[in-house]
Amino acid sequence: MKKFFLVVVLALTTLTINAQEKIFLEYGAAEEEVEKVYRDKNFAIKLGAGISNLLGTEAYPATSYKFAFSYDWRLVKGLYLIPEMDFIVKGSNPWNWTNTLNAAYLQMPVCLAWKFDLPKGMKLGLKAGPYVAVGLFGSDIIWDSWYTSDVFDSNFGSSRFDAGVMAGVHFDFFVFTVGMEYSQGLIMLNSGYTPLNGYNYAAGLTFGVRF
């Protein structure tokens, strides 16, 4: 998993450098033109990292990763609708279990965002909205020496369906966007067994390239 995100980081870095060179060569670094080109970017590819856990369980946080595509759809001046498609890994470190639990989701948030204009085409945005998610795959749960199950096992695992709310702040500058996000699940991932009887939450930082 870490190798996959490293490859994506390198790809985003290459894309960013190429985009910058193209813009500055085309416009000769004329300030007003460069501002306009940067400001009109609405698609974004983002990477994120942070912590996650199951609220309501006896567990330590685990590392969370995120790879996302989003589009900033302007409704009126300053107000945007931002649909997003995420591949996100959430997990926890139960006190009474030896292995870290990880679960990968396809997550779809839809947020409303208010963006404040800053100098040189930069923007500061505040966003919030609901999300739905479906579990794709995850780590094994080692219950004891004789039984192991998948994290989404129908009998002893977590529910694949999750839904909740998300809120965040982001800063758009040139072809980049950086932000902080928090998501809170509202559906009990009820297996009837510790350590899966809780609600997903995740918090972290994101970095992206707009195009």
Structure notes:
Strands 1-2-4-5-6-9-10-11 form an eight-stranded antiparallel β-barrel. It has two helices and eleven strands; from the N terminus they run ααβββββββββββ. A hairpin with a 2-residue loop joins strand 3 and strand 4 (79-94). The protein has one domain (2-210): Porin (Beta Barrel), CATH 2.40.160.20. The protein has helices at 2-27, 31-39, and strands spanning 43-55, 59-71, 73-76, 79-94, 101-117, 123-138, 140-142, 148-150, 161-173, 176-185, 199-210.
Number of DSSP-assigned strands: 11
**N-end to C-end Cα span:** 26 Å
Q: What is the helix fraction of residues, given as a range?
A: 10-25%
Structural class: alpha+beta
Task: Estimate the global geometry from the Cα principal axes.
Answer: elongated
What is the CATH domain class?
Mainly Beta
Q: Hey, roughly how much beta strand do the residues contain?
A: over 45%
Mean pLDDT: 82
